[in-house]
Amino acid sequence: xxxLYASAYTFHALMENVYTFILGRKGHLKEVVLGFSEExxxxxxxxxxxxxxxIARANRQKVFRDILAKRITCNDLKKSSHFQNISNRLExxxxxxxxxxxxxxxxxxxxxxxxxxxxxxxxxxxxxxGIILEIAFLFLDKKDKEKSIYFCRSFFPLEKKDYTEGxxxxxLLKKEKKNLHTGQTKLLYDKLxxxxxxxx
Length: 200
Description:
Blueprint: H1 3-14, E1 17-25, E2 28-34, H2 38-44, H3 60-68, H4 74-77, H5 87-92, H6 96-101, E3 104-108, E4 123-127, E5 136-142, E6 149-157, E7 168-179, E8 185-190, H7 192-198
Parallel strand pairs: 2-6
Antiparallel strand pairs: 1-2, 1-7, 3-4, 3-7, 4-5, 5-6, 7-8
């Protein structure tokens, strides 16, 4: 299957869901609700890096829909001299939902630790075990600073640099996945309930 289409198909499926994470740090709880929208896909797979192609500057929603309709394929991207800069993302991205559904580590991201990186984000999720699933990073930020709704700002697999080094780690206490169409909620992880029961 075309990797670009497979990536868009995965993201389209994710758009039907929201994830809720309950994080703990020094006795304080933090709720993170992660949602997905069409315009986020463009940056996540690195299309902005293909500066010698029009697709880098084109309308993000239209590009996403054209990929799903197979009007834009991986072969189109390979015309760029920068394609190798995003090929690893495209290899990993189709497993994003699986990575999110499995265990992960969550950190508060301090961009000052990486002054040469352009990533500006509040949270960083490290996913995968490096054995069955490759290790990848997902950076989250808020669209509205007043709300706890987050979006995916950046994504890429681990290569040479581990961006979690030196970052403040949260304890993942609970994780749920809710289907927005059916309303069905799936409990993916729950240490919070067991901790509450043990304290009674």
